[in-house]
Write a structure and sequence with these properties.
By secondary structure, the protein is of the alpha+beta class. The chain is built from eight helices and four strands.
Length: 217
């Protein structure tokens, strides 16, 4: 082992972001879809695939909540706050059904019906694409000392950090310990769980609500 160089440890990409960094995130020049998605993720402390699987008809605007399926098929509720509640009506823009978060183009042939908006013909925004869109504009925020020519080779933040940050800020802000597992819908608030790409309606028979699937091998 003499002369062997120690490999650098990978960065902790699940570390909570400071409240100042979260505040800076809201000032990024992004389109309404991204701003709304990020607000809902942070204010609800929900998993990204849960939010991306929401449909317009699932929303309860007056209660600021929407349903998600837990393990075993039980219905649980995702709650958001006033910031997301103000953006959601603008995002929906009069639509009454279909996926809540849509791509910017028509769905390709063969896309499952559950993942296509019947009013616009656009497809449900995928987890992979949502992650890419979030990662790119946050590269400079994640690497403030990097030079402009190096920024393309560096990583930005992951969507999971919004959930992790929300739960951490809840704990720091005095949210009682018994309430944290209820808000995270996870047994351990220290480890909110890995984010898995959503399956929603992809490759499945139609049913009342889509369920997140397993990650790819």
């Amino acid at each position: 082992m003499i002369g062997t160089e120690r490999r650098p440890a990978p960065p902790d990409r699940t570390k909570a972001l400071s409240e100042n960094r979260i505040a800076a995130l809201w000032h990024l020049d992004v389109v309404l879809r991204e701003k709304t998605l990020w607000k809902v993720l942070y204010e609800s402390a929900a998993r990204a695939e849960e939010i991306l699987c929401l449909d317009v008809e699932d929303l309860h605007p007056g209660d600021k909540r929407g349903p998600t399926l837990a393990k075993g098929g039980a219905t649980e509720w995702i709650h958001w706050q006033s910031g997301a509640a103000q953006l959601l009506p603008r995002l929906i823009a009069g639509r009454s059904r279909g996926p809540l978060f849509l791509t910017g183009r028509k769905a390709p042939a063969g896309t499952p019906t559950l993942d296509v908006c019947p009013e616009t013909g656009r497809a449900r925004l995928s987890y992979r694409r949502a992650e890419e869109i979030f990662e790119e504009p946050t590269r400079l925020m994640a690497n403030p000392l990097a030079s402009p020519e190096d920024i393309e080779d560096l990583d930005g933040w992951t969507l999971h950090r919004l959930r992790h940050s929300a739960l951490t800020h809840d704990a720091e802000g005095g949210t009682s310990t018994p309430m944290l597992p209820a808000r995270s819908r996870h047994a351990s608030v220290r480890s909110p769980g890995a984010v898995r790409p959503p399956r929603c309606g992809r490759g499945r028979q139609a049913r009342s609500r889509p369920r997140p699937g397993r990650p790819p091998p």
